[in-house]
């Protein structure tokens, strides 16, 4: 996934092996190679790891924002462990998700699959939608924990 992104898009590479990276394993693997990226002529922007914010939902889980989309939405993940990770797209204002849970599409659990589809279809990942965030059961936010480095 990182190789294709580096070869096809405007990417700032990094050697982040010594940093304390957090998040789902696939994201950590990407972060070890890519510091930031502009994809699809600016339609997607990978935020640097230090620039990713947590966005709160009033009646739902916290979402870690990883990508900014040109249409004003953001792509990020939610989940309380590696098995529960789900990638979603939502609108955020001042670190609060402004979309209703029923309007937040879930694109599955794999960042690699999400990015492959995005690269295959010019950033359009609508075909990956599996459900809405409202359809998921989630744990209390206190349980949202990822290992710093899953080596």
Task: Describe the overall structure.
With 151 residues, the chain is of the alpha+beta class. The chain is built from three helices and ten strands, in the order αβαββββββββαβ. The strands form two sheets. Strands 1, 2, 3, 4, 5, 6, 7 and 8 form an eight-stranded antiparallel β-sheet that branches. It has a two-stranded antiparallel ribbon with strand order 9-10. β4 and β5 (63-69) form a beta hairpin. The chain is globular and about 40 Å long. The two termini are 18 Å apart. The model has no long low-confidence stretch (mean pLDDT 86).
Please provide the ordered H/E string of secondary-structure elements: HEHEEEEEEEEHE
Which residues sit in consecutive blocks of at least 5 with pLDDT less than 50? Answer: none
Query: What portion of the residues fall into strands of 2 or more residues?
Result: 25-35%
Reported for the largest beta sheet, the result is: 8 strands, antiparallel
Mean pLDDT comes to: 86
Structural class: alpha+beta
Shape summary: globular
Number of strands: 10
Q: What is the first-to-last residue Cα distance?
A: 18 Å
**Helix content bin:** 10-25%
